[in-house]
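Target protein
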Amino acid sequence: MRYDVVILGGGPAGYVAAVTALQEGLKVALVERKYLGGECSNWGCIPSKALIELGNAVGLAKSLNKYGVSLSIGGVDRSKVLKHVSRAVIKAREGVKYLLSDAEIIQGYGKIKDPHKVKIEGEISRELEATNIIVATGTEPRSVPTFSFDGERIIHNRHFFELDSLPNTILIVGAGAIGCEISEALAQLGIEVHLVEIMDKILPEVDRDLSDLIHKYLLRSGVKIYTSSQAQFGGYVNNEVLVRIVSKGGTTEVKVEKVLIAAGRSYNTSNIGLEGVGVELDNKGAVIVNDFMRTTVPNIYAAGDVTGPPLLAHKAFREGVIAAESITGVKEPLPRGPVPMVIYTHPEIGFVGLNEAQAFRAGVDYKVLKFPYVALGRDSTSVRPTPEGFAKLIIEKNTSKILGAAVIGNGAADLIHLFTVAISHRLSIDELRKTIISHPTYSEVFSEIISEASGKPLHAPKHV
């Protein structure tokens, strides 16, 4: 049987490409080796947020005491916590299955045999004929020196979210978004957490003023943080892992039940036939594509994590749509950016466009504007306020064009999208100033900093 499009991978890029192709009336087969929904639904976005929500709920309950509301937390049933996480995963997975009810879903491992044939290795081996192919095979967790995954004590995120119960102690290698998010959630649930980062600050992808604030909040939650440090495997001791944390100041030894490696991903581009048919990869193994998500082979497309950073579900959604629409002959593809990014710590971080470090490296003549959460009425009413939070704009001096924005504080995960719209549509400060924002809301951060950028601040403290 011949298909208009065969898609390798049922994650965010793959299933959205399938949904889009089906809407265009194409005949679609989707090949997935394990679970629909991919990394996001099964071991990333959805389970981590389910865990974070529980951690935040405990943190909220503890905060109520200072307001005269006394609650006692009798304990945390760590197996029930993961059952809640599992239910969220299954619901997401089933949702994807429903969306793909008109596509042929094939369980197995797909390999491109030639530009129009895909060989399926599974319970039943078969070959599919395809007018077009979309590669959306994503990434795999990557190990670090001296540690080898055993699936029980030295684990990656997939192992972690398939545990029967949370551990009492854990060491996390890598203080990027995943490491920081899970660290805080677990600490709030009463687990001893050690977080090790080889760089000189946590969250290397954001400016230091943001990462320093999260560092402070993680310490308040009880996370033990080691920056400019390297974790080394020291062996197994009575069902625990001995880890040596090496830094300039010396070596610290800790014993923990689990070591979670959250320090990078590897592209799933090997052994699926790409190079054999002429699809070019970059020096890190990501698929090279153009604005239409087309590879160096005209009828083979790629989308999602497999095309390189940022490794985010919403970036994958967009690329899946572009790939499917390109197959139908669209002349002007949707843009691939700017891509907003969110880190679900407390406080949350949202950022889009250039940060200060990137603007400096690009040689841009820019200025920075900030509006503090301490001046935000809505945050002062919160049971868990984030008064140290702020919004930040990176503005080109000559043109007053917004190059980037960042928000750290309550509501940042949603608020950042106002700035994303502004940057996406290249709206001027004067145009943005016309928008009225409800009071009291977190979204007022947007109108306040835009007023400041226009030279007419409303509620900004005089020292800002």
User: Anything to note?
Assistant: The chain is about 30% helix and 25% strand. The first helix runs from residue 12 to 23. Residues 292 and 329 are 10 Å apart (CA to CA). The longest strand covers residues 126-135.
